[in-house]
Amino acid sequence: xxxxxxxxxxxxxxxxxxxxxxxxxxxxxxxxxxxxxxxxxxxxxxxxxxxxxxxxxxxxxxxxxxxxxxxxxxxxxxxxxxxxxxxxxxxxxxxxxxxxxxxxxxxxxxxxxxxxxxxxxxxxxxxxxxxxxxxxxxxxxxxxxxxxxxxxxxxxxxxxxxxxxxxxxxxxxxxxxxxxxxxxxxxxxxxxxxxxxxxxxxxxxxxxxxxxxxxxxxxxxxxxxxxxxxxxxxxxxxxxxxxxxxxxxxxxxxxxxxxxxxxx
Length: 264
Hints:
By secondary structure, the protein is α/β, with parallel strands linked by helices. The chain has helices at residues 13-26, 38-45, 75-78, 87-92, 109-118, 131-143, 148-156, 164-169, 186-191, 209-218, 233-236, and strands at residues 2-7, 29-30, 47-52, 57-60, 99-102, 123-127, 158-160, 176-181, 219-228, 240-242, 249-255.
C-alpha cells in the first residue's frame, strides 16, 4: 500500500512546506488537502495518509479513521517510579552513562526509560523497520512538549529506520552495553490506544538465531528479551528467564563474559 502526505484541514504555508518535507523523507507524494476528509483522500489516492499537522504527524492507514501519533504513553508515569520498581530497568541493568540499542522501538516507551536512566552521558538508539511508524515516532520525540521533564531525554534518542538484524550486522563488536528486543511489540500493543490503528502495519517478526547471534556480538554486557510468558524463545535461544508472577510478559537475560568485569 502506498503512502501520501497531506496537511491539516486548513493548510498554512508552514504546514504545506512541512508536508513536502515529510513526503521527501518518506520518498512519497505530497497531495493538496482541498478540504477533503481523510477517508476521501484514502479512497481517491488508494493510499495510507500521513497528515503533517501543526504540532505532530498523524498516520491513517487505509480503513482507519483514528490516527496513530506519538505519545510517551507509559513512560510518562514509569519514569516517576524508583528504577528498581521497573522490570525493564531491572532486566537491563542500565546505569548512568550506559548505551542501549532498542531493536524494536515501537512507540518508544522503553527507549524513553533508557534515555532517562542513561542520562546525557549515555546513548540510546532505537530501530524501527516500518518507515512511516519510525518517522512519526522520530518526529514526535523531537516535538513533544506536554511532559517537559521528559523532553531532553526524548530528544536524545536516535531513531534508525532499519530492521534490527541489518543494523546489528553493521555495528562493531561490543558497541553497545545492552541490546534489547521485544519482537512482538507486546507492551506497545497492549498499553496504548493510539497504537491501535497500526497494529496491522507494525512488523511483528519473530526472534531468529541470526538476530540473537548478532545481538551477542554487539552487546558488551547483556542481551535482554521481553516476550509473552508462554514464549519458548527464552529457552530456545539461551536466555535466563526472569519470572514475573501474575504478569503476561517475562524478561530474559544473556550475560556476556566480556561484560563481567563491569557488570552491575
